[in-house]
Amino acid sequence: xxxxxxxxxxxxxxxxxxxxxxxxxxxxxxxTEESAEAFDSRYEKYFARDGIDGWEIRKGMNDLLGMDLVxxxxxxxxxxxxCRRVNDIALAIRWLEGCKDKCGDxxxxxxxxxxxxxxxxxKELGVPTIEEIGYDKPExxxxxxxxx
Amino acid sequence: xxxxxxxxxxxxxxxxQLPHNAQVGSVASVHTLDKxxxxxxxxxxxxxxxxxxxxxDYPMPAVRFRxxxxxxxxxxxxxxxxxxxxxxxxxxxxYRASFCQTIAExxxxxxxxxxxxxxxxxxxxxAIWVAVLMNLFVYDELPVTFxxxxxxxxxxRIIDLEINPVTGVTSHWDYENKKWKN
Lengths: 148, 182
Description:
The complex is a heterodimer.
Chain A: H1 8-17, E1 28-29, E2 32-33, H2 36-48, H3 54-66, H4 73-85, H5 89-102, H6 107-125, H7 130-133
Antiparallel strand pairs in A: 1-2
Helix pairs in contact in A: 2-4, 4-5, 4-6
Chain B: H1 2-17, H2 27-33, H3 70-79, H4 88-98, H5 103-107, H6 112-138, H7 148-161, E1 173-174, E2 179-180
InterPro entries (chain B): Cyt_c_oxidase_su4, Cyt_c_oxidase_su4_fam, Cyt_c_oxidase_su4_sf
Organism (chain B): Drosophila grimshawi
Membrane topology (chain B): Single-pass membrane protein
């Protein structure tokens, strides 16, 4: 989870956006409030679990990408390593696409920050970024079923 | 006698319509597992059924997009090793084997608004045509009381009758000086 209340990213964003704080709210778990760090480490451990299989990775990713937050770099890295363990590079790229999409209308500020934090892992695993593989723009066109 | 015949015929027809081999709890197989062919089921998707769709809100579908072929299996074997050894084309092939569209393609604008705008304008133009033709060919001439001279005479009569003298038309007429107030 991206909680940016202090640090150079926050001040840079303040300068460029004029926003005072872009904190993402901590997740509430049916009454008990969980801190952002606890949430992050919980999902890090989830993806880092030995013997996790593709099914559980996808379930965890879909759940995370359904929540109202941008996954923090640590969680993204943990997800990428999980993809490496199940030998699925397509899933890794899809995970990155999903995380980029979650930045919403703040892509210009949050996404470079995420890339900066996870690029060591990307290089280590050999996962291309979305831009490197050319999937940030549409590559193929699909005819609508209503036009066939 | 005839009723009994019809009854039996109906019963036979109904029985023929019942699903054969209907097992308990096999609704999912009837609906989706038969339709995915040899595709590998890889996840929960969004509701547990084994179907595929590209959704920005559920990026990881339940099945892979393509059925396994020899090329794809060869790439999968290569995928077990170092990913740095995969070329971009191979990575793209692996991606398209698992997914139909990228998220960027899902969210790309379709330009459909142009069709909607065009059709709206066509109907607007047709409406304007109808209005013009109605005025030209259907409607009668305006009565003579609509011309300038008659309107002036009507206004003079309104002022003479002091219609609406407090807040209306004649409140703006200066009766002493016989002209409009400013």
